Amino acid sequence: MTIPLAEHPRPDFQREQWQNLNGLWEFQLDAKDEGEAREWFRGGLPAPRPIVVPFPWGSPLSGVPDSADIGWYARTVELPAGWRGRRVFLVIGAADWRTTAWLDGRKLGLHDGGYVPFEFELTTYLKAGQKQRLVLRVDDAPRAFKLEGKQGYGNARGIWQTPYLEARGAVPFRALHFSPDVDRRRVVVEARFLEKASRELTLTLHFKNAELPTVTWRVPKGADQVTFDVPMTHVRLWSLEDPFLYEVGASVGGPGVGEDRLQSYFGMRKISVVDLPGTRYRYVALNGAPVYLQLALDQAFHPEGFYT
Asked: CA-CA distance, 231 to 242, in Å (whole number)?
């Protein structure tokens, strides 16, 4: 089948080596909550049915009706040859609500929450050139402290945002954020890393579609984040008429430290509040010019996929 939502879910934080896990998975509901005791994560799911990920079970696009609070997912994964020597992570865009993961029967971890991305590292359990079994248990039983929506076409249970595998360097980026400062003709860069640097590293920014010099910044040993300014000469503003985005390649690494690389982008624009010319009415402004906002609420609920 064609992979649904085949695009990368984070184009502003995209690594070159990634593998989309949307599509058909094995699936089984666990109405009696007996799967862990029976070790379904080791021996396989009993009488599995297909489910289309990333659509929540119960939604028409998933292919599975809703009749239980707990669901199990399973599929095979294989490490691409080009990923050897890299750290490999399973990233899940969102799963509602308590998610436990195993690879070949070995527990990777547990995550509570239904609305934000989370990840498990697979590196130490991977076997190059071999197919391995990835199993997820998602428990969406009612809990007093769970956040619940008040409307929609159905109950979004289980995986409802893209899961994917990703190869990273030795000290991976956790986040990379660009804050435009049009008045000072600069962009403030904040980079955060998954762990503290074991030695001094170098962060490099390369602007792919603008005539700006390559930027390098020192990451001190023991640091897990850095913040610095990048001067922006000949600024091309982002506007409604010209929504230009600066495309950036970012990397961090050093001698003996495998480089982590990703692609991102940002726009140079200023949001402010000004008087509408000739009046004292306060207006939202883009790059100093008043903008009339006519807004509609789009909650992105879908009858076939619910949240997805």
From this structure: 21
